[in-house]
Every structure is written in C-alpha cells, then in structure tokens.
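Materials and Methods. Structural model of CAD11 protein. The 701-residue sequence of CAD11 protein from Phaetusa simplex was retrieved and submitted for structure prediction as follows.
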Amino acid sequence: LHSDIDSGDGNIKYILSGEGAGIIFVIDDKSGNIHATKTLDREERAQYTLTAQAVDRNTNRPLEPPSEFIVKVQDINDNPPEFLHENYHANVPERSNVGTSVIQVTASDADDPTYGNSAKLVYSILEGQPYFSVEAQTGIIRTALPNMDREAKEEYHVVIQAKDMGGHMGGLSGTTKVTITLTDVNDNPPKFPQSVYQMSVSEAAVPGEEVGRVKAKDPDIGENGLVAYSIIDGDGMDMFEITTDYETQEGVVKLKKLLDFETKKSYSLKVEAANVHIDPKFISNGPFKDTVTVKISVEDADEPPVFLKPSYIFEVQENAASGTVVGKVHAKDPDAANSAIRYSIDRHTDLERYFIINAEDGNIKTTKALDREEIAWHNISVFAVEVHKQHQEAKVPVAIKVVDVNDNAPKFAAAYEAFVCENARSNQVRPFIFSLPPEIIHNPNFTLRDNRDNTASVLVRREGFSRQKQDLYLLPIVISDGGLPPMSSTNTLTIRVCGCDSNGSLLSCNAEAYILNAGLSTGALIAILACIVILLVIVVLFVTLKRQKKEPLIVFEEEDVRENIITYDDEGGGEEDTEAFDIATLQNPDGINGFIPRKDIKPEYQYMPRPGLRPAPNSVDVDDFINTRIQEADNDPTAPPYDSIQIYGYEGRGSVAGSLSSLESATTDSDLDYDYLQNWGPRFKKLADLYGSKDTFDDDS
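The predicted structure was written out as tokens:
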C-alpha cells in the first residue's frame, strides 16, 4: 500500500486491520508492503477483507481516510475426491439383463469447481470387470454380463475410482468398495439324487406311522426352493400317503391303512416333487418338477388273533334250561403259522356268570335260566388268545338278547279303586282302565263288560247299596293275555259305597259323612215326627198349667191343636229327602265319635270303639240304628248301666236343635220363652203362633 502524500521521509505510518490482520497478514508500516505469515488454504477460507490507513507517525493522526480491500485465495488442486461411504452394499437378481442398474456411488471434491478442473471428477471401475461397469459421469454401476448365476457365484466385490482434473494425468483420485450380491430367482427345478428309493414297514404298523423319507434337491433358496411332494401313481396309493416337511424340504411317506403281510408283501409308488412357486420369466427352464420310484416291502409281524366279525349278536329264550347254546364266536391266527386259538369270557362283563364258553370251539352256553323281565340284554366280552403265545390276544363284544316268552300273567298297572253311589241304579257304568284285556268272573253286585281295547267297564247289577250294611266291596277280576301259552291272574278291584247327589257326583265316602248325613226311610221319619209331636203336646200342656192363664185361650178353627198332628203326618221325600229330619240332632255329641262318658264315675282310660261295632253312615232303619247302639252299650265297659234309650235323653253340649224337654222349667215360676219356635221352620209355625210371646200373638191378631 502507498499513499500519495508519502514523500519517503518516514513521517507516514501504515496501519492494517480486519480479518487475519496481524496473524495471517502483516504490513510494513514504513513501506506499506503486505505479507502472509503462513500458508493459506482456500478450502478453509476463500477470501479475507482488510482495511488499511496512513497516519502521522508522530501524532497517529490519520492523513487519509481508511481504504478497504479484499484478499482472495487462489485455488490449486490440493484435495482428492472423497466418496460419501467407504463401503457400499447392493443386490441385483441373478440372470438380470446387461445394463441393469445396481447402485449409484457419489464422490465430492473440496477444490473450487469454478476454477480450472480441480473439482471435475470422472468415475472408473478398478475391480469387478467384466461382470459390472460404471458410468464415468454419474457413478451408476450396471451389470455387464448376461445370465449371471447365483448358484455359480453369489457375491462380487467391485472397486470404483473417482479422479479429478477430468481424469487427466496429474489429477487426484479416491476409491470405494462395493459388495454386490446376486439375489435368487426360481431358475432351477427340483431334482432327486437317485431314481429309486427302497423302504420297508412292518405289517403291525398303525396308520399314520412314518415309513420313510425322500428329498429332491433344489439349488434355489427361500420360496423359490420350496418343494411339494405327491404320489401320482403306483399300487400303493390307497395304502400310503406322503406329506411335506417344509423345514427339511423332505417328503415323508406314511402308512394310510393297515397292512397284511399274508395278503400283499410289497408296494410301489411314484412320487413327484414340484416347485411351489414358479417364475413365469423362467418357465422355459422347466419343467420345475421331478419324479422318483419308491418301493416298499411289507415285513411279517406276529399278529394277535382276529375275530371273523367285529361284534356278535345272539338271541336266547328266557327260562331256557341251563346249558342252552347261545351262539358261537370264531377267531383265527392271521400269521402263516396259524396257531390254535383258545377262548374265554371277560368275567368283568359277566359278574353273575350267566354264561360259559367252550375254550376250543367258541360255543357260548347258559349256566342258568334267564329272565327277560330282570335283564333283557347281556353284554359280555370274549377273549381269543394263541395257545403258544399268551400275550397275543383279541377281544370282541358279544350282545345276547333274552327273547321274551309268555311267563307273566297280566295284572293291574296300579292299585285301582272305584266307588259306587248308594242310590246307583242297575246297569250304571263306572269307567275303569286296565292294562290288558280282561276276562270276567261274575259278581252278585257288579258285572264287568270287556271293551276290547285293553279296558273294561264295571256296571252295577242291583240297586239299594247302603254304607251301614256294607261300605266296601272287593271285586275279583281275572285278566288274561293272548300269549302262547296264555297267562292270567286274578286282581282285586276295591269299590267303596259313597254318598252322591242326584247327578251321581261323589259327595263323601268316609264314616263321618255317613254319621252326619244319614239317610232315613219313610217309616223311620214318620216315627221320629210322631215322637216330636207327642213331646211338643206334653210341653204345651205343661206350659198351659204353669201359666194358669185366666183368659181363655182363643183357638181359631183353623188353628186347632189336633190339626198340628195331622199337619206333620206327611210322608216326606223318601230316602233322598235329607231335609225332613236329621236323627243326628238326637244323638249325644260326645257319642258321635264313639265315646260315651259316664256320669257316675270318672273313666280311667279312653275307650276306643270296636271297628266292627261302629255305626254305618246314612242309616235307613231306626231299628237297626237302635239295636246297634244297644249292642255297643252292652259291649262297652265304660257305658252307663241303664237302658240305652237314656242316651237320647242326655242333652249333651251344643245340640244343633236345642233341648226339647220342659222338665227343668217346672222348678221355676218364670214364664218360658218360646220365641225360638219361630226358627223351626214352617212345620212348627202353628206351635210358634200358639206359644210364642204375647206381643207376637197380639201383632198377629
């Protein structure tokens, strides 16, 4: 640097400042010359900006304004090209066409690409020829040979060079390594290493057991090398099968059905191995399959006996005599030796030992008579063993059906019980169901009609059943079947005499109902009514004398006392008229249940009435009723010792009709109240009017 005002006398001083001043660049303060103190690197810094100024040496006063200038570093080719990666890896399918792109490699040069050729790069291949090539300007690596075979060589190592100065001499260069692997394609079919395989299997082998293995070799890998095996021909196609073990790429020959050495000793199979995945581009290299012959020999084995049938079903009649032949089983030794067979019954299946078997010929016999109604089927198992080889045995199920014979007479399916109404008419049907068609034994009270449909109807032969005389009938019935021989049995039908309404509907069959609802005959009803009228007359006379009424009792003509007797001298409704009079009202309430307490002594124990002497319900004869009571009193040690008629003079407790006696009223001077006669119904209306309260009489007047 030099100032115009510098006269060379040394009074001007030059000062340098800016980027790198005093470190990289220094200035001579007298002459203004600038020098670099060390080597510059353009790739590190391409230019520097500096400022220079001339000042007075003595006063440091600026003599001129500062001047700025730029120092540029000029490039030289001092940097070789460098690749982004030291090593590259690439894949390309085998048998790719020439020129197939494999990978692109890229290098860079730190020199100035705008100055000269220092940064102009050219690519070339140093190793890997003649298999691959590289484009000089782009660095793209391509295949150079056709039909490269992975099975021949799978991996290639290629060295690529990048050189600056356009590749001319004197240029700098850099290199990188590229590992190229050929990927597999299905270009090879599977091949068996041999044309025939020999195998053997025992006849005792079970289905599913492995016989042997075959393997076709395919140099391809992955899915391109997958092989599937199949049997396409041979006389053993029905006896054997083949599966593929994809882990080992082997074909596994297995037994499909049981073998028999005595029937067939060898088999032949034609096995095919084929690729699973086929590439259409290489179909011309096919066919992608191969075949091989597999010969299998059957080895003889010591087999157990074999029954001619998988199971046996026999029949035997029940009640057959011991020793009856049921049937015969037969087994044989399938081996060539044809050993003798011995038979036995598995006693776990015949615990009662109903059967035995002939050990030599297999005949099964009974040991006792069989009952079909007890056991209809017997299921046993029979063993067959070789005489000289006890460990070889076979087992077969035998079902024995016990055939029914007509050895059981028919009988009622249940304990049937019917009823008959006391007022039942002859030939009235009482329906009843039987399990078998019956034959009839006649009965004086009932008859039986066969309906010919396994049922029968019971009919009443007479009228006038009475629970008092007999409340239970046992009707014997003979039932016969149509078997050979025919069987019959006598069954008993229980028929109860019950009370019914006019429609024949059941009301009650028990004893209590009989006592409370006893039916009365016409004569008994008239006798009872006569007794009641006589008692009422006595009561009226006694009350009349007791009252000693002064005014005469006015008796209207239509209310003559004598007419009261005539009014009640009616016949009533017969047996069905249960409302006319109920003799139960005269009975001792305590005696209804069969217990009559004594008044003079305290009984020491409860007397239970004798079953044969209990009163029958719904009596129709008062004489019979009274005789029964007399007999009961005579045989009862707790009954009073006086005449049984006194039983009816006992008022008891809670009588339904109340007391009819006026004897107790004789001891008092008070008037008796006869208003209760109003509640006795229309038959006692006149008595109620005569002896009712005075107010009532006045009102009626």
